[in-house]
Amino acid sequence: MDDLDEDILATLMDGKPRNFNQLLKEIDLSHNTLRLHLDYLVEEALVRREKTRGGGRGRPIYAYSLASAGRGSASTSPCLRRHGVASVSSSWADLPLRGERFL
Fold first, then answer.
1. Using DSSP, how many helices (H) and how many strands (E) does the chain show?
2. Where in the sequence is the domain holding 63, given as residue range(s)?
3. Domain of 54: which CATH number?
4. What is the distance between the alpha carbons of residues 65 and 47, in angstroms, rounded to a whole number?
């Protein structure tokens, strides 16, 4: 877990799902950097990625939200507890660091 992951999680804290382009504008990261960090957060079950209704043909549109959104408060989320976060007020810095592949 690094500062960029924390920024993504903090942005999603309000519970409002966002598509990739919305996150890109709000967080001000490069496309590839955001993609790598979102993939990591989805893999760690901290962020949920769901298909949304698109405008018809073409690639599907995905919405990203905190994994605990819609399933009670973040403080009771099993995935956050698994990563050592007891409550929302806990520091994201308490989460384990990711491997060297993203540095």
1. 4, 3
2. 3-94
3. 1.10.10.10
4. 6
